[in-house]
Amino acid sequence: MHICYVDESGTSVQNNSQNTSHFVLAGIALPITNWREADRVISNIKQEYGLEDTTEIHTAWILRSYIEQRRIPGFENLDPEQRKMETRSIRNRKISELSRD
Predict the structure, then answer these.
(1) What gap in Å lies between CA 91 and CA 85, rounded to an integer?
(2) Which SS3 state, helix, strand or coil, does residue 35 take?
(3) Sign (positive/negative) of CA torsion 65, 67, 70, 73?
């Protein structure tokens, strides 16, 4: 027996007011005997990045390029708290600049 997970992104209807340029349907199937181990691995990844176990992980978070991060020299070498602090600093400066306009 296998456990299957299927998810979609975008819209498949051409004349839809929320029409997107792409529709993606993807899935994964794993043997039921591997389910607990896969769940444990995912829980460990969430814990490593400070996410609650109930948090849904979105691929876009992983694939998206974050402009603020690219502007921070040595971002990859910073610990999670330093990353947050530097990113917030850049965002706050940008908000301040925009509020002056």
Answers:
(1) 10
(2) helix
(3) negative
Q: Round to the nearest angstrom and report the end-to-end CA distance of the chain.
A: 61
Please enumerate, as own/partner, the contacts of 32-35 that have beta carbons within 8 Å and a separation of 24 or more: 32/1, 32/2, 32/3, 35/3
Hey, is 7 helix, strand or coil? strand
CB 36 within 8 A of CB 50: no
How do the pLDDT tens digits run along the chain, 101 residues long?
999 999 888 877 666 666 677 888 899 999 999 999 999 999 999 998 889 999 998 877 878 888 888 889 999 999 989 998 999 998 898 899 888 86
Report yes or no on whether pTM surpasses 0.90: no
Q: DSSP states of 51-68 as a string?
A: --TTPPP-HHHHHS--HH
